[in-house]
UniProtKB/TrEMBL annotation:
The keyword Oxidoreductase applies. Residues 34-384 form the FAD dependent oxidoreductase domain. It comes from the Bacteria. SUPFAM superfamilies: FAD/NAD(P)-binding domain. The lineage of its organism: Bacteria, Pseudomonadati, Pseudomonadota, Alphaproteobacteria, Hyphomicrobiales. Coiled coil: none annotated. InterPro entries: FAD-dep_OxRdtase, FAD/NAD-bd_sf. Gene3D superfamilies: D-Amino Acid Oxidase, subunit A, domain 2, FAD/NAD(P)-binding domain. This is FAD-binding oxidoreductase. Keywords: Oxidoreductase. Signal peptide: none annotated. Residues 1-24 are annotated as: Disordered.
Length: 428
């Protein structure tokens, strides 16, 4: 039987096309190290890689298998900048800080592509991203955004598309305009997970799967992470579980909320398909965003079903096919070979959450759908903090991230109501 993630529904197309997926042992016995990392997704594996390469004794534990969470199952889009548009960050923080945040994200993009190239990880990179308006009143915002990015943020790769160009590039007339970004692209995320784990292990990081953390204590300048079959004692700890933290650490849980996001993969559409002839990825202007792209072999990978809570839809295929048909009526009966989901960590303002949640313990997550690019780089930034340079991580730590209202008992129902209201607005 093919392996099925215990924490994420469905088997992904990524799992079936990533090639060999090595297994790592479970921790058995106590360990002492410089840094312990809890969570084997992009953030944790990247941090382990950079720490090990710097000579740090690092132990990483993952409850299940690397890539079982969002890192191995996401939409694969890199995007540009932070989750919020640069001009929105400028309005909140001023131009200087907004530019610093944008430049940091651009460095994150370059770092990911360079890391994959240097370490010979074939991540199926394909260039281009279209961001499109599902309502006419949003079109002027996209036009202004392209001008602002070229002018105030020195990013000339975004161009405005009118309705005609948008329809031609999408192969669909369902949108009213948007932008085309030639300075970014999309990847096969599971291949990056597998490759990063390989590089981390080769650098000397001690990697363990099937090893959940049952508690984290910071006392007397030391951190102790307990597991079912051993305790890890360290100088520092990185919590990199994002949406999968549960009740492991209360500060992170108060600021990061899991939302389910679901994707379907069709059969290859064929070389004569009019769908996305340029091969770009797409995201739209809905609050409950739809995101889609074609794979290297011509399949449509379509995400657009979000669930705010812990219950999964019974049939991912039905929901995804319905949304595909809204944009591409000719595909209303297309065969969907894979349907899967995972949980994305969001924050109230949709900005990343990085905090020292107890002495010598930093938590990172809340990438809010922008994590492919940022999480890998945040692992590198964490390694920088351990080796003495916290300045760049501080730029993220100082973002204003309030906790979700309602406390542990009521925050999920309140979020469910609020975000379903936004979903209703998307349709009006």
């Amino acid at each position: 039987m093919p392996y099925q993630s215990p924490i994420s529904p469905g088997r992904s197309w990524y799992e079936d096309t990533a090639g060999p997926r090595p297994e790592y042992p479970a921790l058995d016995g106590d360990r002492t190290c410089d840094v312990v990392i809890v969570g084997g997704g992009f953030t944790g594996l990247s941090a382990a890689t950079h720490l090990a390469k710097a000579g740090t004794n690092v132990v990483l534990i993952e409850s299940y298998r690397f890539g079982d969470g969002a890192s191995g199952r996401n939409g694969g889009q890199l995007g540009t900048g932070q989750r919020a548009w640069a001009e929105d960050l400028e309005a909140e923080y001023g131009l200087s800080r907004a530019r610093a945040l944008f430049d940091l994200a651009e460095e994150a993009k370059a770092h990911l592509l360079d890391f994959a190239a240097i370490n010979q990880i074939d991540i199926d990179y394909m260039p281009g991203q279209l961001s499109v308006a599902h309502k006419p009143r949003y079109v002027d915002d996209y036009k202004a955004h392209a001008e602002i990015m070229a002018g105030r943020f020195s990013y000339p790769h975004i161009s405005f598309m009118d309705a005609k160009e948008t329809a031609e590039r999408l192969g669909s007339s369902a949108y009213f305009g948007g932008t085309r970004d030639t300075g970014t692209g999309h990847i096969h995320p599971m291949k990056l997970v597998i490759g990063t784990a390989r590089v981390a292990a080769q650098a000397g990081a001690h990697l363990f799967e099937g090893t959940p953390s049952t508690g984290i204590i910071s006392i007397g300048g030391k951190v102790r992470v307990s597991t079912p079959r051993g305790t890890i004692s360290a100088q520092k700890c990185l919590i990199a579980v994002n949406a999968y933290g549960g009740t492991l650490e209360p500060v992170s849980a108060a600021h990061i909320m899991p939302i389910g996001s679901f994707i379907g993969a069709t059969v290859p559409l064929g070389s004569d398909s009019k769908v996305l002839p340029g091969g770009e990825s797409v995201d739209d202007s809905r609050f409950v965003v739809r995101y889609f792209r074609k794979s290297r072999d011509g399949r449509l990978l379509f995400g657009g079903r979000e669930v705010y809570g812990v219950n999964d839809p019974k049939d991912i295929h039905i929901h995804i096919r319905r949304q595909i048909a809204e944009l591409y009526p000719a595909l209303s009966d297309v065969e969907i070979t894979h349907g899967w989901g995972g949980y994305v960590g969001i924050t109230v303002p949709r900005k990343p959450f990085v905090r020292e949640v107890m002495p010598n313990v930093i938590s990172a997550g809340g990438y809010s759908g922008h994590g492919v690019m940022l999480s890998n780089f945040f692992g590198k930034l964490y390694a920088e903090t351990v080796t003495g340079n916290r300045d760049r991580m501080k730029l993220i730590e100082e973002l204003k991230i309030p906790p979700f209202p309602g406390g542990r008992r009521f925050r999920a129902p309140l979020l469910f109501l609020a975000l379903n209201w936004f979903a209703l607005r998307d349709r009006i």
